[in-house]
Structures are given as structure tokens and as C-alpha cells.
Amino acid sequence: MPDRDVSAALSYTGSGAPRVVAAGRGKVAAKVLERAREAGVPVHADPELADALAGLALGAEVPEDLWAAVAEALAWAYSLSDAAITPKR
């Protein structure tokens, strides 16, 4: 069972795989979440994915076996951006 007190942050430039830019457990996880919220970065709750990403080295590309889960999280985040800029009809 994944640790519920874990967080990870990704960076994706549009080429290659996303990279882990921050990750931690406990107080570090809380700080990662705090910084993300301060920066207006969407925060997606997925303890299993966060646990897997937190096990990677900082700067590491997301491995292929996590691509589908990461793609879902990125699609969710992008949908929030689209909703914010797309006028309602």
C-alpha cells in the first residue's frame, strides 16, 4: 500500500518523457505541495503514482511503465487550463 504522505512534482517540456523535479515524504511532501499551490500548479491526488515517482531520482525521466498513469495526470492538469481559458457557450 502506498504511503499517503508522499508527493512528487513533474516537469514536461513537450519532448521526451516528463522528469521528476521534486519528491518527498512527510514534511518534505508537505513542502512540495505547499510550493505547488503557491505557484498555482494543479495538484492531483494519486498516492500510488506519487509513491512510484518519489522512488525515482530527482531529474530522472518517468519510466515507460508509468507513462499511462502520468499521461492521465497531465491530461487532467491540462483540462483545468483549457477550462480556464475556453469560453463557455
Shape: globular
Residue runs with pLDDT of under 50 for 5 or more positions:
none
- At the first level of CATH, the class is Alpha Beta
Would you list the SSEs in sequence order as H and E? EEHHH
CATH architecture: 3-Layer(aba) Sandwich
> At the third CATH level, what is the topology name?
name from scop
For the sheet with most strands, the description reads: 2 strands, antiparallel
How many domains? The number is 1
User: Beta fraction of the residues?
Assistant: 5-15%
Radius of gyration (Å): 13 Å
**Number of H/I helices:** 3
Q: Enumerate the strands of the largest sheet in spatial order, edge to edge or round the barrel.
A: 1-2
Q: Identify the CATH homologous superfamily.
A: secretion proteins EscU
Q: Give the N-terminus to C-terminus distance in angstroms.
A: 43 Å
> Strand tally, please?
2
Average pLDDT score: 88
What structural class should be given to the helix and strand makeup?
alpha+beta
Q: Which percent range fits the helix content?
A: 40-55%
